[in-house]
Amino acid sequence: MNAKIVTAGLLVIGDEILSGRTKDVNINATAQFCTDLGIELSEVRVVPDVIDTIVEAVNALRKRYTYVFTTGGIGPTHDDITADAIARAFGVALPIHPVAREMLESRWKESGTEVTAARLRMARIPEGADLVVNAVSAAPGFRIANVYVMAGVPVIMKAMLEAIAPTLEGGRKVESRSVSAGVGEGALGDPLAEIQSRYDDVKIGSYPQMGYGHIMTYLVLRSHDIARLDTATAEVQALVDKIHRDKNITLPEEAKP
């Protein structure tokens, strides 16, 4: 029996991402994480630090996908409003969580850090949520229903992903194949579209490449069904081989997949 398809949406929160002040790396990390688990990362949204916008995005994504991951906005400053937005999205209170507070105060005691109201903001957890362990700085993330709320700092985000991995249900693995064509996309468009029309269970993408000193297009095929993927790949390879013969094109070794 085939495993079911498990999907995810990612919500990246923060004005600093949208302004360009901070370069996001969490999208790539989450995509790799999902691929490794057989989860399809189907959508990524980047939103500002605006509660109504976050609420709208969370409510849309959590209805659409198996899992929703969020990054950013759970720190101690006034503009860290993700927890507030998640609580509002679920219609629950946002009290200080006793276990989260204990975890934080224990870490602060070790480092001699003063307990302040601002720092205790990081212990506010929506009612009904479970904590997501943070092995890096102790400030936890949380899970409520199918929404996992995590830090924006990349090293902490990755640690949180590792913490939740055993709790997630994996799906069907996606395999990929690649074919290199020594022509532009225009020469491939119509025949490639005809092949795609017969393989609706195989995604075929074309990506123009630069840096080889000549025209190149990199074709990538992806599917859960390995047999269908291999058959479609053979057809695409045959198409490319014919074009190469007709145009007397020979690919250099470095251009081959």
Automatic annotation (TrEMBL):
- Please give the InterPro entries that the UniProt record associates with this protein: CinA (IPR050101), FLAD1_M (IPR056596), MoaB/Mog-like_dom_sf (IPR036425), MoaB/Mog_dom (IPR001453)
What SUPFAM superfamilies is this protein classified in? Molybdenum cofactor biosynthesis proteins (SSF53218)
Q: Where is the MoaB/Mog domain?
A: 9-171
- Pfam families per the UniProt record, alphabetical: FLAD1_M, MoCF_biosynth
Protein name as it appears in the record: Molybdenum cofactor biosynthesis protein
Q: Which organism is it from?
A: Pelagibacterium lentulum
Species lineage, top-down? Bacteria, Pseudomonadati, Pseudomonadota, Alphaproteobacteria, Hyphomicrobiales
